[in-house]
Specification:
Pfam families: Ank (PF00023), Ank_2 (PF12796). By secondary structure, the chain is mainly alpha-helical. The chain is 42% helix and 0% strand. The C terminus is likely disordered.
Amino acid sequence: MIELNANLHIPDEVGRQPLHHAAYWSHAGAIKGSFDARPAIMRLLLDAGAELEAKDNNGDTPLSLANENGRVSSSAIRALVEAGAELGAQNAYGNTPLLLSAMQGSAPTVRLLLLVGADPRSRSPNRSTPLHFAFALMGHPEGPAAISALLATVGMDINAKDRDGRTPLCRAVFHGSSPAIRVLQGAGAQPSPRYFPSSVDPVQLLAEAMRNEDGVQIADLLLQTGLKPDARGASGLTPIQFAISIRSLPLLRRLLSHTVGLSVRSM
C-alpha cells in the first residue's frame, strides 16, 4: 500500500483510516502474528504520513481504539504515544482513552496510560472519573494494581461524585462487585448517602447482591445509600419479605435494623 503511494487518509464507511485499523487489530479471528505486528505496522504508516489524531465517525482516534477490542499491546500504545498521540483527546461522547479503558475494564491499559502521562482526574460528560469504573476493572487480575495506580495520583478524590451523586463505591455497590467494594473501602471510600433512584427495583437489586458471597455486606451498603426495607419491588415483595422468602436470617436482621417506625402491614 505504502510502496504504491496509496492515500493513507481515505476513511472507510465508519470514518476509520488505515492507522485506526492498525491500532484496532486483533479482533476475533485475527492471527496472533497480526496482533504482535501492530506496532511495526503503525510505525510504517506514521512514517508514511498517516494522521495520528484522525477521528472516526465516533470521534475515536487510533489511541482510543488501541484497546477497544479487549486486548492490549503495550508496544502498540507506546508507539502511538511516542509519535505524539494526544492522551486527553475526547471522542464524540466526551471520553478520553483512559476513561474508555476504565469503562471496558482493561486494567493493563489503564496502568500503561497512567505510566505515560494520562490524567486520571479526567471526567466523562456525566462527571465520572476512571475510579467510577472500579467495578469493571476488578474483573481483570490487574484490577487492584490499576486502582492503586489511580489512587496514587495527587489530588485524586476517591469519593468524587458523578452528575447523579454517585461515588465510585456507590457504583461498585449497585453492580454487586464485592472485589471492588473491598478495594475501595480499604482505601477509605464512602458510599453516596441518600442516593437510591426510584427507578431501581430494590428487591431485584437485593436478589443480585445475595448471589455474592458478600451479599449481606452489599445489602448494608445499599441501605446506607437509601434502600428502604418497606419499598415494594416489581414482584410485589418488600426487601424484608424477600429476605424471609430466601430464608436469610443475616439479611433479615440487617433490614430490620433499618425499620424504625415501620408497621407490620408495610413489612
